[in-house]
């Protein structure tokens, strides 16, 4: 959205000269299966000089270098996990767009869930009180009341649409 | 002279806003009608002054007055007129002028149309609105003057960032700001009501139109931004979970929750305290969006420190507004009495569940956006949070929202019959299953979750249809009676159904393009063709094409399917000589069910071919069709006569009197 006023202005200042758009044909591997693996992995890796872009989307020269490096590792026979580990060893967790689950990120990963449970718990607890109250408050309607209600509803319908 | 007038008007607006934020509040406390009335006059004056300032800046941009720094930095004589105007808000200072202009516009609208508000509430609302104005105008006058002169004036300007020179983006900020700033009125109404110590059904009804305007504009603004990234970024991505995007999504989520909880306040006089809190939080998130984008804190904590005057000022503004709002809430909310009771399975229960899920989703986006800053600030190391995180947390939260959305409007108030409602939704369930089966048949089983999600979208859309059909008793009454009922159905009910169906349509679009996009990236020579999802793309020619302030390299492609002509596509690469930047203009052919998307880029290293990227994006247009439906739903709801009348109708009016054309409020 407002990446406009920001991201791309920033990206634009970081890059000068002609833009290379994301993955280029000359970077791609001839083995389609391995290339598909490379694409899948590179969608979850961050271009370190960009603002929140994956190396798969990014136009930056660094992203290209990382894409080539990743493919080189895969060609050398690394598994997906090994290839990612190779990059995190060099660039740290910062390169992962999916932050690792460790004590420092527990709040991040489990916060929303905890909030849902706590919020839901409070609501259930209050709802139980509320429903007990509602039962007491509103005994079922008698036949006579229902007939009266139906009459009122009919009036309401007829009343609608008048200026 | 004109820029000085604009600058003067800006300072004048600040002084008027100061008056507006003090006198009416004082008057309301003393029950002094004349002092309260100052609020309205001041709101008009502030609006007039800011209209003058905005007009002056626009004039400077339109005539390319290069003695004004802001024009030099963001304009150029060759720039088309549309972007000379859009360039006014395409920069820091100018966007703030637009921000305060819209703020004053809303203030003036309350002054003009708030006749049915109690005088004291109106005075307090305008005073709070004035305070927000003071904060922002002070910020501008102190740190971000858009009218700064340059001497000697350069011969020409630096031009606007080419990425901003786009029709989709030209009008994206005004709608976004209408949304952000519109929620300022909800905040002012909440603060005003807290000072009054009274929140009732009438209050909810007064707030609702403003919340609807803000929400509809924000929906459109976000949709325009995502449409822009879809066609300019060169591969059809439409949402990136970028912090700047999240900054606009958070107020949207909170605002959606606010719209729904305000219904409960209006109809059942309960959830009052929660609704007030949501109004405060929604605007706080809007402010935070402005802060995140404007202070530079997102790029890194260090960028924030490099321009401390602006960053610290906005941070202070954010703290004062949020802190003030929450303090007022803590002090005064206990005064509000809880209203009607309800069983867990009821319309109220459904809306509470909606609020729980939307608030949690909003908190998730908040965590995902600010956690890296937080980690960095406490020295916990740098981490990145991108799409994989949000796909794993936000998306699962939205599934129950969409699932329950179909049920909600069918539940009755106080206590509902869930089995009966589910029975009435049998057709919706059937449509969901059919949608899932159709996806399975067309696209294969591949992502099972996507097939299920498409079924969910079908359920949501049909649920909205069932809701309306149910209300007008379609097929259970003679058709003419149903049509008459449809005509008399409250606009609010229509709005709900349209907006809910819109979300279902948009979800289908999101799922379709995320799961089943086909891509082909290759080097093509002139005359060669390549197959993508059954379509054949042939590169016919590549030629230079002149533009007003750029030169383009335009490719012409012919798309055929089984030998039959489908479309001619002409993607461009534009080079802007002033900024020395290249932009991509993708060519898109849509048939409503899918888009064919083509980009022809740089010449390939071998010198004879071109790097080309072709895509088929299934269902992607539905994202924006759905968004427009959502916005339309908001506007239809806005036209509900109950909102225009403003005060809940008293049943006691005698029949004969009701038939007489009513008050001038209509």
UniProtKB/TrEMBL annotation, chain A:
GO terms for biological process: cytochrome complex assembly. InterPro entries: C-type_cytochrome_biogenesis, CcmH/CycL/Ccl2/NrfF_N, CcmH/CycL/NrfF/Ccl2_sf. Residues 1-22 form the signal peptide. The chain crosses the membrane at residues 106-125. The keyword Transmembrane helix applies. Residues 12-153 form the CcmH/CycL/Ccl2/NrfF N-terminal domain. The keyword rRNA-binding does not apply. GO terms for cellular component: plasma membrane. It comes from the Bacteria. Keywords: Cytochrome c-type biogenesis, Heme, Iron, Membrane, Metal-binding, Signal, Transmembrane, Transmembrane helix. CDD domains: CcmH_N. Pfam families: CcmH. GO terms for molecular function: metal ion binding. Belongs to the CcmH/CycL/Ccl2/NrfF family. Possible subunit of a heme lyase. This is Cytochrome c-type biogenesis protein.
TrEMBL record, chain B:
The keyword Cell inner membrane applies. It is found in: Cell inner membrane. Its main location: membrane. The chain crosses the membrane at residues 6-29, 41-62, 96-113, 125-142, 175-195, 207-229, 249-265, 274-292, 312-331, 352-374, 394-413, 425-443, 449-472, 493-516, 619-638. It is a multi-pass membrane protein. GO terms for cellular component: plasma membrane. One of its GO terms (biological process) is cytochrome complex assembly. Residues 89-295 form the Cytochrome c assembly protein domain. The keyword Cell inner membrane applies. Keywords: Cell inner membrane, Cell membrane, Cytochrome c-type biogenesis, Membrane, Transmembrane, Transmembrane helix. Residues 315-641 form the Cytochrome c-type biogenesis protein CcmF C-terminal domain. It holds the Pfam family Cytochrom_C_asm. GO terms for molecular function: heme binding; heme transmembrane transporter activity. Belongs to the CcmF/CycK/Ccl1/NrfE/CcsA family. Required for the biogenesis of c-type cytochromes. Possible subunit of a heme lyase. This is Cytochrome c-type biogenesis protein CcmF.
């Amino acid at each position: 959205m407002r990446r406009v006023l920001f991201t791309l202005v920033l990206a634009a200042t970081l890059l000068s000269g002609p833009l290379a758009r994301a993955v280029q044909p000359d970077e791609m591997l001839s083995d389609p299966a391995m290339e598909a693996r490379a694409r899948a992995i590179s969608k979850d890796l961050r271009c370190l000089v960009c603002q929140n872009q994956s190396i798969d989307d990014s136009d930056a020269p660094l992203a290209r270098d990382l894409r080539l490096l990743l493919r080189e590792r895969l060609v050398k026979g690394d598994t997906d996990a090994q290839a990612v580990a190779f990059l995190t060893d060099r660039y740290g967790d910062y390169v992962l767009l999916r932050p690792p689950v460790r004590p420092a990120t527990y709040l991040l990963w489990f916060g929303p869930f905890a909030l849902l449970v706590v919020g839901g718990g409070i609501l259930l607890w209050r709802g139980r009180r509320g429903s007990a109250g509602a039962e007491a408050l509103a005994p079922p309607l008698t036949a006579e009341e229902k007939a009266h209600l139906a009459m009122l509803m009919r009036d309401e319908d007829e009343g609608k649409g008048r200026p | 002279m004109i820029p000085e007038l604009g600058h003067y008007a800006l300072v004048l607006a600040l002084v008027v806003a100061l008056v507006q934020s003090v006198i009416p509040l004082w008057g309301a406390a003393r029950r002094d009608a004349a002092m309260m009335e100052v609020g309205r006059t001041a709101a008009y004056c502030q609006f007039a002054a800011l209209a003058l300032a905005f007009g002056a800046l626009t004039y400077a941009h339109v005539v390319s007055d290069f003695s004004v720094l802001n024009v030099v930095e963001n304009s150029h004589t060759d720039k088309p007129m549309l972007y000379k105007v859009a360039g006014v808000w395409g920069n820091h200072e100018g966007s703030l002028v637009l921000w305060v202009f819209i703020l004053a516009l809303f203030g003036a609208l309350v002054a003009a149309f708030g006749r049915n508000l109690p005088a004291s509430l109106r005075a307090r609302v305008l005073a709070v609105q004035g305070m927000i104005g003071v904060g922002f105008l002070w910020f501008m006058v102190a740190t971000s003057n858009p009218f700064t002169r340059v001497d000697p004036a350069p011969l020409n300007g630096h031009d606007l960032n080419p990425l901003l020179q786009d029709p989709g983006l030209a009008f994206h900020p005004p709608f976004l700001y209408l949304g952000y700033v519109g929620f300022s009125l909800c905040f002012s109404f909440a603060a005003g009501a807290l000072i009054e110590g009274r929140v009732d059904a009438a209050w909810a009804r007064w707030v609702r139109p403003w919340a609807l305007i803000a929400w509809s504009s924000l929906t459109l603004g976000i949709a325009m931004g995502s449409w822009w990234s879809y066609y300019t970024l060169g591969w059809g991505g439409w949402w990136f979970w970028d912090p700047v995007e999240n900054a606009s999504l958070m107020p949207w989520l909170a605002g959606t929750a606010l719209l729904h909880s305000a219904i409960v306040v209006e109809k059942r006089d309960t959830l009052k305290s929660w609704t007030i809190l949501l109004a405060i939080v929604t605007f706080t998130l809007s402010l935070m969006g402005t802060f995140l984008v404007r202070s530079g804190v997102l790029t890194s904590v260090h960028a924030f420190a490099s321009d401390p005057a602006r960053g610290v000022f906005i941070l202070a503004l954010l703290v004062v507004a949020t802190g003030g709002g929450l303090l007022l809430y803590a002090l005064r909310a206990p005064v509000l009495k809880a209203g009607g009771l309800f069983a867990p399975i009821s319309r109220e229960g459904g809306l509470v569940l909606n609020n729980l899920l939307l608030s949690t989703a909003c908190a998730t986006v908040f965590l995902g956006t600010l956690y890296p800053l937080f980690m960095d600030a406490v020295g916990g190391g740098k981490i990145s949070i991108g799409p994989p995180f949000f796909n794993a947390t936000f998306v699962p939260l939205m599934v129950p929202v969409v699932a329950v959305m179909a049920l909600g409007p069918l539940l009755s108030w106080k206590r509902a019959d869930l089995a009966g409602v589910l029975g009435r939704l049998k057709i919706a369930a059937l449509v969901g299953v059919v949608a899932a089966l159709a996806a399975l048949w067309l696209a294969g089983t591949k992502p099972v979750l996507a097939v299920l999600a498409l079924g969910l979208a079908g359920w949501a859309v049909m649920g909205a249809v069932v809701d309306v059909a149910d209300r007008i008793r379609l097929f259970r009454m003679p058709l003419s009676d149903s049509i008459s009922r449809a005509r008399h159905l409250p606009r609010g009910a229509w709005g709900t159904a349209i907006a809910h169906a819109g979300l279902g349509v948009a979800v289908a679009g999101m799922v379709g393009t995320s799961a089943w996009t086909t891509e082909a990236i290759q080097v093509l020579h002139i005359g060669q063709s390549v197959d993508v999802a059954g379509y054949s793309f042939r590169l016919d020619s590549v030629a230079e094409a002149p533009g007003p302030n750029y030169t383009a390299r335009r490719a012409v492609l012919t798309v055929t399917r089984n030998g039959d002509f489908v479309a001619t596509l002409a993607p461009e690469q534009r080079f802007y000589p002033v900024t020395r930047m290249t932009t991509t203009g993708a060519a898109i052919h849509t048939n409503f069910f899918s888009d064919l998307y083509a980009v022809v880029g740089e010449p390939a290293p071998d010198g004879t071919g071109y790097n080309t990227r072709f895509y088929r994006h299934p269902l992607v247009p539905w994202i924006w069709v759905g968004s427009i439906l959502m916005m339309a739903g908001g506007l239809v709801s806005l036209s509900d006569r109950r909102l225009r009348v403003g005060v809940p109708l008293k049943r006691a009016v005698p029949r004969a009197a009701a038939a007489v054309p009513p008050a001038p409020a209509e």
